[in-house]
Amino acid sequence: MRHSNKIVLKICFLLLFLFSLSAVTSAQGTTDNTPTLTYSVASTGEISDSAFSQTWTLTTASADRISVHVERTEGNLLPTVSILDATDKAISQSNIDQTGAAADIENFKLPSAGTYKVFVQRVNADKGSSTGKYSILISPLATAEDNPNNTVVLGDVEYNKAINGEITSTQWYQRYSFNANGQDVVRISAKRTSGTLYPEIEVLDANGASLNKGYTDDTGGSATLEKVRLPNAGQYTIVVTRANRFNGATTGTYQLDVTLVGAGEDNPMLAAAPGTVTYDTELKGSINALWYQDWTLKTDSADLITISVTRSSGDLIPQILLLGGSGQEVSRANPSPTGDSATLRRYQLRTAGTFTIRIWRIQGKNGVTSGDYSLKVELVGSGEGSSNLADKGSTIESGQPQTGTLTGVRWLETYTYKGTQGDKIDIVVNRTEGTLIPRIEIQDSNGQRLRSSALGDNRDSASIVSYTLPGNADYKIVVTRDGGQTGYTTGGYSVSVSPAAK
Predict the structure, then answer these.
(1) DSSP states of 480-493 as a string?
(2) Residue 20 pLDDT > 50, yes or no?
(3) Is the pLDDT of residue 3 over 60?
(4) Half-sphere exposure (CA, 13 Å, Cβ side) for 172?
(5) Mean pLDDT computed over 25-30
(6) Quick one: average pLDDT of 212-227?
(7) Is CATH 2.60.120.380 what the domain over 43-142 is classified as, yes or no?
(8) pTM of the model
(9) Please, are residues 340 and 311 in contact by the beta-carbon 8 Å criterion?
(10) What one-character DSSP code corresponds to residue 218?
(11) Range of lowest pLDDT (30-44, 78-92, 377-391, 467-481)
């Protein structure tokens, strides 16, 4: 019986101790309830004489930059607020504002990711007398750079397809994946479409190293990288962010645009099959991100040619490259003073063969001009041995004039004359139209020159006078122009053979 009384007495003492401990805790204003706080979501609490403080829990994924605002909503509460670390040490605390109705912690950087306590109490704590309800709001000014919001890839960027996005305090570093097919030159721009955003852009390589940055322009509304020279084909990251980044304050929506300025030499886009050149025929082409176009010219002789290219739309400033059979440059023509055309004038090919005419813009891959063009390759003079100059088997007889026309394509005509040894003949050629300055010569049946003509006083005729034929044979009467293949004149003519005047 005495043992039972001792047990009851011990239980009574234990209950009395616990009651006393509860009373002390209540007097200090603490509570076992620790509600949680969420960024940008307002919560409400209450301070009373029996609970003059309240503890909240905040868990963050990174070392963010935040602000805390506590404001009285009812009563005469004079609030204060502190942030405590895991050891309950205050790492930041507020001062009451001039109205006494609010308390703020402004622009505070948390030391790391983790769980923190936000401690709200009244001025003078247990010695204070103010009470009332309050609201509490934690605003993220910037999540840390390593926060998942700032490391995730939001999507893919393609040429000439705008991306619309929004920079916020919790996601101020936005990444997009971009695939380049060569050592391209690209233009990247980000333009604010709403809000206060001061945009910036950045290009990262496959390892995350920064290749280039574009800063906010003088207007504050956009950032542009005019020419980013990508080092190779492959994967890149294009970033849109804000001025001062983690420490920045602007937010808003934007439009991101990526434009191909010039395809890299290794980009398959430039491997298009070349066009084919036909002499004296207008050809059409376009220059843009595909900053050159090739045309194939095949010749059967060492022709004399003129290549001209003229802009037909846009702001294209064209150039001409003439490439040999191994792709080597053999000649070029730079833009005219007006910039709308280029001409490689009267170029003498060294041989027959296959050539490439490349039309490209000034500065090539790094250039910015673009537009349509027309190309024309003029045959100024067929090369000797060209099929254009082949003997057509024409004949001429004494007293029976023949007529013809000389052009750049066919700048000579050959007639066969059956002659008798000892005959003296006059051979005369006269211009009938055009600019032709005619020349004439007589050759033997093997094509060896026997005599050439002299020019007439007015350069509109030529003649061989009183020439004695050396034997009975078929002679060749060749009508050509002054300068032959490299001559400038063309036009109609009349040629005649007659007995020499006595």
Answers:
(1) EETTGGG----EEE
(2) no
(3) no
(4) 26
(5) 32
(6) 96
(7) yes
(8) 0.76
(9) yes
(10) T
(11) 30-44
Q: Which residue ranges make up each domain of the chain?
A: 43-142, 148-262, 272-381, 391-499
How many helices, marked H, and strands, marked E, lie in the chain? 2, 37
CATH among 2.60.120.380, 2.40.440.10, 3.90.1010.10, 3.40.50.300 for 272-381 = 2.60.120.380
Give the span between the Cα atoms of 457 and 439, in whole angstroms. 13
Q: Which CATH number fits domain 148-262: 2.60.120.260, 3.90.580.10, 3.40.50.2300, 2.60.120.380?
A: 2.60.120.380
Neighbours of 404 (CB within 10 A): 17
Q: Is the pLDDT of residue 2 over 70?
A: no
pLDDT tens by residue, 117-151: 999 999 999 999 999 999 999 999 999 999 999 99
Domains 43-142 and 391-499 fall in the same CATH topology: yes
Q: What does the radius of gyration of the chain's CA atoms come to, in whole angstroms?
A: 47
Cβ atoms of 69 and 137 closer than 8 Å: yes
Give the right CATH number for 391-499 from 3.30.1330.90, 2.60.120.380, 2.60.120.920, 3.50.50.60. 2.60.120.380
Buried b (16+ CB within 10 A) or exposed e, 333-370: bebbeeebbbbbeebebeeeeebbbbbbbbeebebbbb
- Strand 402-406's sheet: what is its strand order? 402-406, 491-499, 424-434, 461-468, 454-455
Q: What is the tens place of the pLDDT at every residue in 403-442?
A: 999 999 999 999 999 999 999 999 999 999 999 999 999 9
3-state helix, strand, coil in the chain (%, to 5): 10, 50, 40
117, 87 in Cβ contact below 8 A? Answer: no
Strands of the sheet containing 449-452, edge to edge, are 394-395, 412-419, 473-481, 438-443, 449-452
Q: Quote the pLDDT of residue 424.
A: 97
